[in-house]
Amino acid sequence: MTQRIAWITDSTAYIPEELRKAADIHIVPLDVIFDDVAYQDGVDLSSEKLYEKIEHSKTVPKTSQPAIGKFIELYEQLAEAYDCAIAVHLSSKLSGTYQTSKAAAAQCEFPVEVVDSQIVSYPITTLLGKGLALAEQGMDYRDIAETLRREASKNENYIVIGKLSQLHKGGRLSNAQLILGTLLQIRPIFCIKNGAVELFEKVRTENKAYRRIMEQLDRARSMHRVSQVEILHGNVIEKALALKEQIKSKHQDVEVLVYPLSPVLGVHGGQGTIALTWTNEPQS
């Protein structure tokens, strides 16, 4: 008998509208706290509005994981319509959302497998898509969850921060670092490895940063099968589309998707941020 599986994720994942309609996916929003007012990520606050507010504020808003009660309420509701559930959340090293979801599942009789994606944004969606495909094949939900945990390590990503001023506002850069970085046009490139954010490299100018991450994509394709690349942007669609054209001109066989970063991720990355991410599959 086919299992009726509910799929849960959080608002840092970008779920295209067609996937929301086609699958039993339930999204639990994180909160963006701005001037003591809490906004539900992607519900009460759009990315565009967030950047406008940040631009005119001396401080950066904070983010907060969902309360455990939200997960308990959702899991109790899902128990009425589903046999089990798989929850795929942003990296446990970046937020307590995964642990909160797991704690809520432990308090419910409804069987839930909670997966740490070790990443954020569209790569979570990629994992959900793989899980849905396995469910179509009739795989047990526990085996699906275990497969997704292994698949999470295949992601590779690079993040070019848009504005050093936002890192400064958030306390991640000193005044001296901000001034020096601005004068020298420093563009730090970050990546998420094993679930944690690491500094990959510092380069001079934005164009050099993009060339550097393109080199990493070239290297990855020489070693792995990379069939799809995602570009995630902080309210700079023109830059994202220009980068897409760069990739397509060199790698015609790669599908390139472009999506915005969620407000929660925009708080930490800032307007102008560009992230490039893909999955390294074994070469056939």
Describe this protein's structure.
There is one protein chain. The protein is built from eleven helices and 13 strands. It folds into two domains: 5-153, Rossmann fold (3-Layer(aba) Sandwich); 155-279, Hypothetical Protein Tm841, Chain: A,domain 3. The chain has 284 residues and is an alpha/beta fold. It has helices at 17-22, 47-55, 68-78, 97-106, 122-136, 141-151, 164-169, 175-183, 206-223, 237-250, 263-269; strands at 5-10, 25-28, 31-34, 37-40, 62-64, 84-89, 112-116, 155-160, 186-193, 196-204, 228-233, 255-260, 274-279. β11, α10 (237-250) and β12 (255-260) form a beta-alpha-beta unit. It is globular, with a radius of gyration of 19 Å. The protein has a six-stranded mixed sheet with strand order 10-9-8-13-11-12. A four-stranded parallel sheet has the order 2-1-6-7, with helices on both faces. α5 packs antiparallel against α6. The model is unreliable at 167-184 (pLDDT under 50).
Entry summary:
Helix content is 41%, strand content 26%. By secondary structure, it is α/β, with parallel strands linked by helices. Helix 3 crosses helix 4 (97-106) and helix 5 runs antiparallel to helix 6 (141-151).
